[in-house]
Design brief:
CATH architecture: Orthogonal Bundle
Number of strands: 0
Protein name: SNF family Na+-dependent transporter
Shape: globular
Membrane topology: Multi-pass membrane protein
Distance between the termini: 39 Å
Number of domains: 1
Main location: membrane
Order of helices and strands: HHHHHHHHHHHHHHHHHH
Helix content: over 70%
Keywords: Membrane, Transmembrane, Transmembrane helix, Transport
Subcellular location: Membrane
Bound molecules: 4-fluoro-L-phenylalanine, sodium ion
Radius of gyration: 21 Å
Length: 440
């Protein structure tokens, strides 16, 4: 190990840490993945399964990442070497690899959102579905896509290069309140639309019948979504918690972060569906690309749609940005801790490499979907699963000790947490991994 002569960076305030974690959690996963999965997987039945997994799987798993990060004050590789050692160190490597792969294409999709925000200000959106589709194909791949992918990655590099307090914390202090306020404003606007009533009943009415016939697809989808949306399984929460200087109540912080993520996801459904229904567009069409097409076509149809679309896509871009910085920080923290590289150089080199790795995705949308599936359903779940086994079964005492710093005596919370990690979380992740491998 290198001797560290410089004091490791920390968050300036407790709110800074919470906002950064909220910024990481609230992202592309909330804005299209979530509402559309609710729509496809049985409306309120999926919603209920999802909420169950958030509490039963997401919350305990988030606390695991927090304690590992705060205990070691290290990047994911260093952290896993410190608490597990030996072969467990490879789990840290899985996190780094996943973060690397995910940001490479996350940035491509984020680039589309920036492109689509500009589209509102320039030519406006096209109401005709076929034209909107053709437009998406031309904007989402090729040089246009590469340019916006590069632009987005450059902004991520700048924020991460500025460091924890001057870069990430400052950025999320501006971005997260903006996301919350604009999302609420858009929900109020969507409420006034003609298609709102129909949209709400589509979004919120339980179709219990679907739950009985489709549970095999609803359950893994809900579990996977719970993990992805909370930024788990990539070491992002380990990394952010490693910058906690002081002992704060991590259970309370986790609950706040999860509340924000779930709230924004839910409200986004109240925004997206009224817009689609009012424009007479079927929301059943899945996939990241299809959602760009249907929303853009809806904005093409609405009065002042260019403005609504501009605001919407700008919000999505901001949310994607605050998530992307956490993904880059996972890898950058490793390069700084383990290779003794200056933060600015680390951010530039890592960002440039991620940009290059994303170029194939910016040319080939089928490839992008394939990489997304591999990263989400296999890499992320595998890394998450191994960490839960390590902490739940091998290191429960260390974990309980660490969680109690800043809380005091955990009482019944300690066994409840450890047993949640040991059985439900591990089982859900094993099933999700098996299904993910089958699907792949
Ligand atoms: N939680 C983010 C979302 O919902 O879009 C995605 C994400 C960001 C996952 C950062 C993992 C991560 F480390
Ligand atoms: Na999320």
């Amino acid at each position: 190990m290198s001797d560290i002569d410089i004091q490791r960076e920390t968050w300036a305030t407790r709110a800074g840490f919470i906002l950064a974690a909220v910024g990481s959690a609230v992202g592309l996963g909330n804005i299209w993945r979530f509402p559309f999965q609710v729509g496809q997987e049985g409306g309120a039945a999926f919603l209920l399964a999802y909420l169950l997994f958030i509490v039963l799987v997401g919350f305990p798993a988030m606390l695991v990442e927090f304690v590992v990060g705060r205990h070691t004050e290290l990047n994911p590789v260093g952290a896993l070497r410190a608490v597990g050692g030996g072969t467990w160190t490879y789990v840290g490597w899985i996190f780094i690899a996943t973060g690397f792969v995910v940001l490479s294409y996350y940035s491509v999709v984020a680039g589309w959102t920036v492109r689509y925000a500009f589209l509102g200000l320039q030519d406006g959106y096209l109401a005709d579905a076929a034209e909107a589709e053709a437009q998406f194909v031309s904007l989402a791949s090729g040089l246009d896509a590469i340019f916006f992918h590069a632009l987005f990655m450059a902004v991520v590099i700048v924020i991460v290069a500025l460091g924890i307090q001057q870069g990430i914390e400052l950025a999320v202090r501006l971005m997260v309140p903006a996301i919350v306020v604009i999302t609420l404003g858009m929900a109020a606007y969507a409420f006034t639309l003609e298609g709102a009533g129909e949209a709400y009943s589509y979004y919120l009415s339980p179709e219990w019948g679907l739950f009985l016939t489709e549970w095999q697809s609803i359950l893994p989808a809900a579990a996977g979504q719970a993990f992805f949306t909370l930024s788990l399984g990539m070491g992002a929460m380990i990394t952010y918690a490693s910058y906690l200087g002081e002992d704060q109540n991590l259970a309370e912080d986790g609950a706040i972060i999860i509340g924000f993520d779930t709230g924004i996801a839910f409200i986004m459904g109240l925004v997206v569906f009224p817009i689609l229904f009012t424009a007479g567009i079927d929301p059943a069409d899945p996939g990241a690309g299809a959602i760009f097409v249907s929303l853009a076509a809806a904005f093409g149809d609405l009065a002042l749609g260019w403005l609504v679309g501009f605001v919407f896509f700008t919000t999505v871009a901001i949310a994607a940005l605050s998530s992307a910085i956490s993904l880059m920080e996972v890898v950058v923290s490793y390069v700084i801790d383990e290779r003794n590289v200056d933060r600015k150089i680390a951010a530039s080199v890592v960002g440039a490499a991620m940009f290059v790795l994303g170029i194939p995705s910016a040319y080939d949308l089928v490839l992008l979907d394939l990489i997304d599936l591999f990263a989400d359903q296999i890499l992320l779940v595998l890394g998450g699963l191994l960490l839960m086994i390590l902490v739940g079964w091998v290191l429960p005492d260390l974990a309980v000790d660490e969680l109690s710093r800043g809380i005091g005596d955990l009482g019944a919370l300690a066994p409840a947490w450890i047993w949640a990690v040991r059985i439900p979380v591990v089982v859900v992740l094993i099933v999700a991994l098996a299904l993910g491998i089958l699907e792949y």
